[in-house]
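Retry 2 of 3 after timeout on previous attempt. Resubmitting structure tokens to design endpoint.
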């Protein structure tokens, strides 16, 4: 990528520095939470920022980083009712094209963001991330993605954590989020992070949420970590978490399951596996019907599904304290899974992109013993995984457990339980390649990040295969 990142990053870092020294609420409006873009369409994109002001907020979109060629501009407003966050829906842009954007209140100018519209050329490149636990570490993996040349970043959930599961960094609020004010403060804290700001300033994001944007293993009817007797009605808490997410994330509001088209090459359907989940369904009927309709009628060469929890059936080896399967994944909803996988018929061009389980997997998704799709699971950016939880050195105890997983689940072609990081996804007509890039030390904000494993799926095979580094 070009020098864009450096300039944007420097401004973002300066703003973050000002915020942390307590000048955030000075009289002049400050863009202390950076800028973001998301939900790219062939003719437009959504822009985001936050600024405390009652004045008009001017925005500009240009073809160049120095704003010599401004192609769109307008005025937005915000208020305390939406926690001073700003969203601008820009249309009338060219497809598959880079743009730069900024906001201005009076003489105060925001950091510059870079984005890209939908559509595609002969290939697509995405970043993929999930499970960014502030308390458990630093987000060097986001900084690494910010420096890559990408069309967009797909975020598969646990963008925030509602609780404080770690001791590396202090969180705000210091307690578990329960109220609208709590969830807003949590989102605000995340968006002061230098790597969060540099990631958003560099790429459009396509995000869905998982459980920790509300509460652990949440559904529409509750969470094992929510006690209505002491914490109030679950519905009020879920509504607060939803409102804060919509205010603070560069997503269109209304529903999180939505479909993005990248020319004839790829279609990406993001799922919301929390808002409509009950004991009987992970999708809800309306979302299930929309997903199956897209998978069976869309003509793109590849179908991607942004899927917060693992689709493939998974038998868990005997481990102390762990059940033999994880009912929070699709394993808890076999009827929904069978309907979705059966709908694929003999089209073998579907790829599930998954987060949630803080580990790296490549899987040939089986139905009736035959592979019908492939699934790639990105590991956690920082959230604890096998070696963290067992307090053992990486690549020791996990090796044996990984072998047990593969012996019990022959459709699992690769599993790595210890490392943290991000992934990249490269899409061409012939193949999809999925790379895992691991962070050397999640406690170090300047940690090295390097590609560690690569797999690919050739078109119409529904099978994963390792690509030598
Ligand atoms: Fe997670």
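Retry 2 succeeded. Sequence:
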């Amino acid at each position: 990528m070009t020098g864009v990142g450096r300039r944007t990053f420097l401004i973002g870092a300066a703003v973050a520095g000002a915020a942390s020294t307590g000048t955030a609420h000075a009289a002049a409006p400050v863009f202390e939470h950076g800028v973001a873009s998301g939900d790219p369409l062939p003719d437009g994109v959504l822009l985001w920022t936050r600024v405390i002001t009652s004045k008009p907020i001017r925005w500009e979109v240009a073809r160049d980083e120095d704003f010599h060629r401004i192609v769109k501009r307008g005025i937005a407003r915000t208020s305390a009712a939406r926690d001073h966050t700003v969203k601008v829906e820009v249309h009338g842009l060219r497809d598959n094209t880079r743009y730069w954007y900024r906001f201005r209140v009076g003489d105060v100018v925001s950091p510059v963001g870079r984005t890209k519209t939908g559509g595609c050329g002969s290939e697509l490149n995405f970043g993929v991330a999930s499970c960014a636990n502030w308390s458990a570490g630093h987000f060097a993996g986001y900084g690494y993605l910010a420096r890559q040349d990408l069309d967009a970043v797909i975020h598969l959930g646990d963008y925030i954590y509602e609780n404080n599961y770690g001791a590396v960094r202090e969180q705000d609020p210091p307690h578990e989020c329960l109220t609208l004010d709590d969830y807003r403060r949590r989102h605000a804290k995340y968006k002061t992070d230098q790597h969060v700001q540099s990631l958003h300033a560099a790429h459009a994001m396509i995000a869905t949420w998982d459980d920790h944007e509300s509460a652990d293993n949440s559904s529409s009817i509750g969470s094992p970590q929510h006690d209505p007797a002491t914490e109030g009605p679950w519905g009020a808490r879920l509504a607060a978490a939803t409102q804060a997410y919509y205010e603070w994330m560069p997503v269109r509001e209304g529903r999180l399951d939505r479909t993005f088209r990248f020319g004839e090459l790829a279609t990406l359907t993001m799922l919301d596996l929390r808002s409509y989940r009950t004991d009987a369904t992970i999708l809800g009927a309306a979302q299930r019907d929309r997903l199956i309709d897209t998978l069976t009628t869309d003509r793109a060469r590849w179908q991607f599904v942004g899927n917060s929890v693992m689709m493939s059936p998974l038998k868990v080896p005997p481990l102390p304290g762990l059940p033999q399967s994880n009912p929070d994944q699709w394993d808890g909803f076999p009827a929904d899974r069978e309907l979705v996988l059966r709908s694929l018929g003999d089209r073998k061009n579907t790829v599930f992109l998954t987060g949630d389980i803080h580990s790296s997997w490549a899987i040939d998704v089986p139905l009736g013993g035959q592979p019908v799709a492939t699934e790639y699971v990105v590991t956690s950016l920082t959230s604890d995984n096998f070696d963290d939880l067992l307090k053992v050195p990486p690549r020791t105890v996990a090796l044996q457990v990984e072998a047990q997983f593969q012996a019990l689940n022959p459709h699992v072609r690769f599993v790595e339980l210890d490392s943290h990081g991000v992934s990249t996804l490269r899409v061409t007509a012939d193949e999809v390649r999925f790379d895992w890039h691991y962070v050397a030390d999640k406690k170090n904000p300047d940690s090295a990040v390097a590609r560690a494993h690569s797999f690919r799926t050739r078109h119409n095979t529904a099978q994963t295969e390792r690509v030598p580094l």
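Attempt log closed. The first strand starts at residue 35 and ends at 41.
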